[in-house]
Write the structure tokens for this entry.
Amino acid sequence: MAEVIVNNYKEATAILTNRDFAQSLYDESPEIMQDVILTSEGNTHINRRKIEYHLFRKDISRNYEHVDFFKILKPIINEAYTNGSSDLVELSYLVTMNVTADISGIDVPKDFIKTRKLLKLVKIFSEGATLVHSLKDKTIIRNQVLDALEVFDREFYSSSLKRREKILEKFECGEIEEESIPKDILTILLRNKKKLYLSNDIIRREVAFYLQAGSHSTANASTHAFHELYEWIKSHPEDEDIIHNDKFFLQKCVFETLRLHPASPVAWRKAIKPSKILTKKNINEGDHIIIDLWKSNRDISVYGMDATKYNPYREVQKKLPPWGLTFGVGAHACLARVLDGGEVPKANTDMNKHNFGLITCFMKALLDKGAQTTQKNIPQLDDKTERQNWGKYPIIFNKVK
């Protein structure tokens, strides 16, 4: 069994789109990741993906972005603005956790203390899912995940499950119409439980996976996006106006951030059978493939000679994603890509009908509130993981001129 490293865009794409290679990055995290959609393969993965895809269609994502997201964002960001300061890492997690709770099917309590408790559990789930890159004691983390799952079940999941089961019973009896059924992962899995051969444990893990995966990746991407924006404005003050007033350009800024800061710096695959897919090396069954997304997203043959640098004016070849491989490609590509990052606009795109993505909308809200860094408290990277995430990112709010 050999270890093969892939660090260019073309070969990375070839591996990620080939079903002869199975997901293996999360093998150390069965407590939270076993048999969820991201780690399942073959027909099991395909059938579940077809069912769950309907929650992330472009029209549904657009409606969520234009209506539901602002119901979540407005009170949270207004409170931070009233306080005059916040930690952007914590603020991003709070915003995105509420979004992923909506999508995964967890009823978030109005009690702010309980909401914070759910956020704490979600962060533990994220630590468990990203265990391979953790610098902490992994046995301790695994035990924390198991304990957190019990609390999650008792205080959040069971009540959400029972409410949806009652709704589905009413639907089966003809007491309510289809429109009254919640549109979320938990509900759609319950409706397809027999068809997809799902156990109760798999459904719970799938819900917990969506709850943490979306909040973890989107919260980190949001903090990176703000940092890159703020640093760009400091060095390019002439662009401050366009960043504040042109939402299409702001989205390009977000695309560039996503390219430079993939949620995971690597993707791992295990060869199911021998392959000659690479140009310089044959792959044998059982070989471990490390796909360096960080370097692949900085491939100068794809993104230009300045590919390692942040450049929101970057022009990308047609049909190539401006966000690189950050959302993945192939069978395991992120279902929520349009919801999170939006779509690439065309020359005649109507901004009122466009998917800008939740990260761009979040950045617009922060900029509109005059969010900025403070010299008193310097942002700090997270020293508990190999991933280049921010651990603390203090911001203050000033009125925009």
